[in-house]
């Protein structure tokens, strides 16, 4: 499949899944503060728990994501997408039932465990599905559109959070998450990889590790023996200069963004007394700017501007955005800074496109967990910083 329209069912699945998660995102800060520090605008415990959770999720993703990727090579992307889409329903169902302190801790524990699969699994499997079905020359646009779909779900989810009461938000989010899993199982068409069309197979193939003779068919190594290690990442960095450069950029960009994401909402609540509606307004502006950028500007610019230049623009604007956040002297500053999101969202699809072009057809998902290993190290860094 070479047409972007052939990815429509994947886009719908990703949209619904993102909608369910992002619908509760503006409300989760207030829910956390109410459960942990009722009646207060500042809560260090909430920040510590958030940093710890992200560190655990990042480290767990390093183990789980390669395993899901290897299994998806054997059983298909669709079969493995079922697992994270199903698991993502459970934490939402808990808060849909109750948001008291005990239920919040149950949500926190279950969310920490399931996010090891869902946060990286859905994203990486979706990216791998796109790479399986789109040629190299069109992947930058396809990745940009996929990011645009995620931002569209961000906008719709934030708008829903703005209009719905908190008690109803979690119930609807749980239902939408269920619909996402059912829709994917019914409509998404899988593609079986034969592993014969590798364009840049610098990753070690499983066939190289098996013994073959004239009378026996090749035996695949056990999936559980192919879990990613730090040594695998180091080996990959040594054999690919481009991937090494991408990894360095991704590490420091994730370090900066991770720190902002883990603390910004609590910072705004403490400094400007933000509530759910103001969070939703801010996120809505950022999401709308990013959606327009990914769905309109990015596909238009990629034929004329290289991924490297788009990446440079996005990184510089990201620096300006974080600098403005750090010196916010009035409540309007964070809202004004959201205009820079138009350029900031160039970064993820540019990194993905550059990385994707370094690997072959059945290696697309292998590169994704390696990037998550870097992100997990980032999570540990800012968790310790808290």
UniProtKB/TrEMBL annotation:
Subcellular localization: Membrane
UniProt KW keywords: Membrane, Transmembrane, Transmembrane helix, Transport
InterPro entries according to UniProt: MFS, MFS_dom, MFS_trans_sf
Bilayer topology annotation: Multi-pass membrane protein
One cellular-component annotation, GO: membrane
GO molecular function, one term: transmembrane transporter activity
TM spans (from-to): 7-25, 45-68, 80-98, 104-130, 142-164, 170-188, 279-302, 322-347
Residue stretches making up the Major facilitator superfamily (MFS) profile domain: 1-192
Gene3D superfamilies found in the cross-reference section: MFS general substrate transporter like domains
Designated name of the protein: Major facilitator superfamily (MFS) profile domain-containing protein
Source organism (scientific name): Manihot esculenta (Cassava)
């Amino acid at each position: 499949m070479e047409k972007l329209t052939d990815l429509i069912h994947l886009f719908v699945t990703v949209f619904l899944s993102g909608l369910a998660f992002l619908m509760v995102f503006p409300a989760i800060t207030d829910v956390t503060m109410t459960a942990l520090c009722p009646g207060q605008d500042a809560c260090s415990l909430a920040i510590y728990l958030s940093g710890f959770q992200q560190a655990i999720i990042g480290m767990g993703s390093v183990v789980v994501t390669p395993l899901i990727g290897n299994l998806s090579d054997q059983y298909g992307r669709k079969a493995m997408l079922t697992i994270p889409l199903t698991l993502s329903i459970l934490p939402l169902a808990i808060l849909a039932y109750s948001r008291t302190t005990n239920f919040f801790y149950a949500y926190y524990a279950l969310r920490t465990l399931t996010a090891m699969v869902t946060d990286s699994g859905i994203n990486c499997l979706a990216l791998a599905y796109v790479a399986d079905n789109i040629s190299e020359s069109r992947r930058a646009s396809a990745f940009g559109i996929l990011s645009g779909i995620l931002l569209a779900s961000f906008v719709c989810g934030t708008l829903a959070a703005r209009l719905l009461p908190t008690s109803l938000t979690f119930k609807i989010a749980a239902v939408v998450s269920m619909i996402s899993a059912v829709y994917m199982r019914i409509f998404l068409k899988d593609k079986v990889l034969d592993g014969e069309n590798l364009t840049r197979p610098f990753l070690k193939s499983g066939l190289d590790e098996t013994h073959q003779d004239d009378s026996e068919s090749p035996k695949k190594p056990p999936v559980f023996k192919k879990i990613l290690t730090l040594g695998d990442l180091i080996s990959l960095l040594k054999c690919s200069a481009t991937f090494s450069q991408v990894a360095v950029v991704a590490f420091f960009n994730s370090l900066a963004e991770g720190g902002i994401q883990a603390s910004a909402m609590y910072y705004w609540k403490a400094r400007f007394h933000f509530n759910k509606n103001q969070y939703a307004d801010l996120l809505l502006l950022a999401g709308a700017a990013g959606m327009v950028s990914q769905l309109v500007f990015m596909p238009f610019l990629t034929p004329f501007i290289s991924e490297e230049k788009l990446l440079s623009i996005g990184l510089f604007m990201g620096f300006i955005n974080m600098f403005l956040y750090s010196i916010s002297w009035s409540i309007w500053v964070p809202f004004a800074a959201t205009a820079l999101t138009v350029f900031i969202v160039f970064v993820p699809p540019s990194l993905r496109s550059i990385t994707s072009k370094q690997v072959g057809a059945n290696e697309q998902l292998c590169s994704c967990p390696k990037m998550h290993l870097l992100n997990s190290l980032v999570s540990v860094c800012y968790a310790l910083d808290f």
